[in-house]
TrEMBL record:
The gene is murD. ATP binds at residues 110-116. It is an enzyme of class 6 (ligase). GO terms for cellular component: cytoplasm. The keyword Nucleotide-binding applies. Pfam families: Mur_ligase_C (PF02875), Mur_ligase_M (PF08245), MurD_N (PF21377). HAMAP family: MurD. This is UDP-N-acetylmuramoylalanine--D-glutamate ligase. It comes from Dokdonia pacifica. Its main location: cytoplasm.
Length: 445
């Protein structure tokens, strides 16, 4: 008799898991509370996988031996509560797929910088001619890649929601870029719950494994003091010289791991800004641990082009630079963006507020921002926070209108920055949709 798996959510991770589960002999049901995309329906039908949309058939789901839950579905959803009440294990795609591969796993998590760091590590290892798959929170589904490709090393971007559903998952190298308050609406508004979720990336590591982390982040260092891990700690720092790990000194980065030494001038890094120097440190530390040649590391860091929707320079119109930072879905990411602005900035902000505290942004707004455009269904909180801080603050519910307003209030030499500090689901499908709409609106000016 075949085991049954129920998969909640028929997006990229759900469909990928379904393909792998079918291959491994499971009876599969994909169930989505909303509507499935036509492309995914076709894939599921082609693989002869049973699917439903527009609601969950609870009786069928409760026959499953195991449930894979897509990361966007909260634990407090009624169907998830019912599954847990029946004692059925609920896992994430990361957990399920990892059970079916012997590849080396490199896992990257953090509140900000994880996409850039993941992409940069993938780029470094690809340039070193390793057989690499980049998956998780970006790119193709990890499970689908495990089902369809033979890959030696996976570089996985992993969100806290995906880590909530891991049991045995253990990356050989784990990276925590930083931890700042985010998604607190999913963690009972308790920061400690969110920190604990991030540290699940290291919970199954052994002394043969590595945990790379930001030693300048007090949240991480305090947590490690109270909750030691078994893996070998590899810190990186902008402020302290380290015997083991990565550090910055005199405008250079230095990396020392297991008799491998590497150094490089910060000016030569393709990605600019302090946060990107940290991302480069984390990525080159991974490369150093894997004994990648120094010339390969250097050339990769010099040539890396960056990530779409992350401080992406779109166009210059009338000597005004338009910048797409739609991936900034929390306050800390927007802090980095505003901090990197070197010209007067018109800032487009707003969306679904996840319990944000905007006070950290006040000094940067005073220093850098000349006008604010609030782009969301409900802008009341933004208006109350920022209404007295700038001369121009305008509400809108349309990206096209937001960009047209920005065009009108800018002068030569200004920046227009989309850095929402919020999730996108009120007006857009996701942050990618929001970023693409911004770029289209700019191109249509």
């Amino acid at each position: 008799m075949s085991k049954k798996i129920a998969i909640l959510g028929g997006g990229e991770s759900g469909v990928g898991t379904a393909i792998l589960a079918k291959q491994k002999g499971y009876e599969v049901l994909v169930s989505d509370f909303g509507k499935l995309k036509e492309t995914y329906k076709k894939v599921l039908t082609d693989f002869d996988i049973v699917w439903e949309e527009g609601g969950h058939t609870e009786a069928e789901i409760l026959k499953a031996a195991i449930v894979m839950k897509s990361p966007g579905i909260p634990d407090k959803a009624p169907i998830v509560k019912a599954i847990l009440a029946h004692g059925i294990p609920v896992i994430s795609e990361i957990e399920f797929a990892a059970r079916y591969t012997d590849a080396m796993l490199i896992g990257i998590t953090g509140s900000n910088g994880k996409t850039t760091t993941t992409s940069l590590i993938g780029h470094l290892l690809t340039q070193a001619k390793l057989n690499v798959g980049i998956a998780g929170n970006i790119g193709d589904s990890f499970a689908k890649m495990v089902a369809e490709q033979s890959i030696d090393t996976y570089v996985l971007e992993i969100s806290s929601f995906q880590l909530d559903g891991v049991v045995d998952f253990a990356p050989h190298i784990a990276v925590i870029t930083n931890i700042t308050p985010d998604h607190l609406d999913r963690y009972e508004y308790e920061f400690d719950n969110y920190i604990a979720a991030k540290f699940r990336i290291a919970m199954n590591q052994t002394p043969e494994d590595y945990l790379i982390y930001d030693a300048d982040d007090p949240v991480i260092t305090d947590w490690l003091k109270k909750h030691p891990v078994r893996s070998k700690l590899v810190p990186f720092s902008m402020h302290q010289k380290l015997d083991y790990g990565a550090y910055k000194e005199d405008n250079k980065i230095y990396i020392n791991t297991d008799n491998n030494h590497f150094s490089m001038t910060i000016q030569d890094l393709a990605l600019k800004g302090q946060h990107n120097t940290k991302n480069a440190m984390a990525a080159s530390t991974v490369a150093n641990l894997l004994s990648i040649r120094k010339t390969t590391i250097r050339e990769s860091l010099e040539g890396f082009q960056g990530v779409e929707h992350r401080l992406e320079q779109v166009l210059k119109i009338g000597n005004v630079q338009y910048i797409n930072d739609s991936k900034a879905t929390n306050v800390n990411a927007t802090f980095y963006a505003l901090d990197s602005m070197s010209a007067p900035t018109v800032w487009i902000v707003g969306g679904v507020d996840k319990g944000n505290d905007y006070r950290d942004l006040y000094p940067l707004i005073n220093e850098k921002v000349k006008a604010i455009i609030c782009l969301g269904v409900d802008n009341a909180k933004l208006m109350s926070h920022f209404g007295n801080m700038v001369d121009i603050i305008i509400e809108t519910q349309s990206m096209t209108e937001a960009v047209k307003i920005a065009y009108k209030v800018t002068e030569k030499g200004d920046n227009v920055l989309l850095s929402p500090a919020c999730a996108s689901f009120d007006l857009f499908d996701n942050y990618e949709d929001r970023g693409r709409q911004f770029k289209n609106a700019v191109r249509n000016l």
